[in-house]
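Q: Convert this sequence to structure tokens.
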Amino acid sequence: MSSQPRHVVRTVLREALESKQGGEVVVKSASLSGRIFVVERKVAWVVITEPSAPNFSSLLMEERLVSRDDIEQVMAECRKKGGNFCETLVAWGLVPRETVRGLLLQHLSRQLRALLALTDAQALFVPQPRAYSSQLTFRLEELVPPVSQPPPPHSPEERIPMANVKQSLEESLKIEGAFAACLVDAKSGMTLGSIGGSPTFNVEAAAAGNTEVVRAKLKTMNALGLKDRIEDILITLGEQYHVIRPLSTREGLFLYLALHRSNANLALARFKLADIEKSLAV
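A:
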């Protein structure tokens, strides 16, 4: 794959969607790789090929719609008869079709947004005719609304003052060790503002992926009957700290901060991020 422009994934995906033959779009970058499967000019599946990437089976179990045994039996049936995983779930009466479609739309949208957010990616369309035994496919506009499409209207008090967001993110990046920060909508995975990052760390792709972390924690708290709020979530890597700070003033939004572990003071960083969260008016 040769050097390509910033929006190459979207460009190559549109090429695939215009093809009568269909096939798959292979995406590679320094931080993330994946594949987008296209059938009859619609998106049939999106997969991020990383061991830690969320999968659809986990989402179904988080929603308490199926058990692990159910998943294993459905997969065995699909391997044996070549059936479609989602269609088999519906055919066996495990999950209603509309529920499967809604969750699948949500899952594929998050995966696709993460790939489209990559700015250093290379992409290649591999035409490949394939029989797809499911009608659970989506138009690109269903998964990712066009950039020109205006957001849903909000009342004046619900509008997000972007100047305040920009200032808060700039303050976040002044925290010792910080190299990337963003404000994220946990429901859609969309980044409402970002700063920093590097060619090997796409902050928007990371934020989209971490919406699953927030959702999973909220599901667990709900299952345990914990009537409390999340102050922050800390992810410790070998060379980095990632801090997720849900906003107390606006449900569904969270601040995401990435720091170099070698020169970060974690306790001070969490304290300063809490102050920034309190001053962020949204």
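Residues 1-5, 148-159 have pLDDT under 50 and may be disordered.
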